[in-house]
Design goal:
TATA-Binding Protein, 5 helices, alpha+beta, six-stranded antiparallel beta sheet
Length: 137
Amino acid sequence: MPEQTTPYGFSVTVSLPYDAAVERVRGELQKEGFGVLTEIDVRKTMKQKLDVDFRPYVILGACNPPLAHRALSAERDIGLLLPCNVVVYAADEPGRSVVAAMDPVAALALTGRADIEPMAREVRARLERVLDATATR
C-alpha cells in the first residue's frame, strides 16, 4: 500500500532494480488508462547540464485522456496542474527502487473547487493501484 510521504505525494519502495521498475510502472499506468506524455531522465539532464552525477531517476508525465478531458472541461486553466507526475528512482539499497506519484487530491485542491475533488479522488485511486501493482506483481 502506498504511503503518504509528503503533503503532495505518496510512494512505495519496490524490490526491483531501476530499469525493471520503470518498465513495470509504464505497464501498470497503461492498465489504468494512463499514457506517458513526457519523460524526463533526470540523471542524464544533470550530467549534461551540470556535469553532476545523480542516481537513476525518471519523471513520467502520465495522462488519462478521459479524466483529463473532464478536468479541462470543468476548468480550462487546470492544465497548469497536469499531467500527473510519477517518479521512479534507484533506492539507496541495491536492487530496490522508489516509485512515487503526485497526489492529485492535494494538487487539484489548489483550484478551490469542491466539484473537482471527486475526479481528483478517482485519479488518486488509479495511481494508488499503479503503485500497489508495481510493488506486488
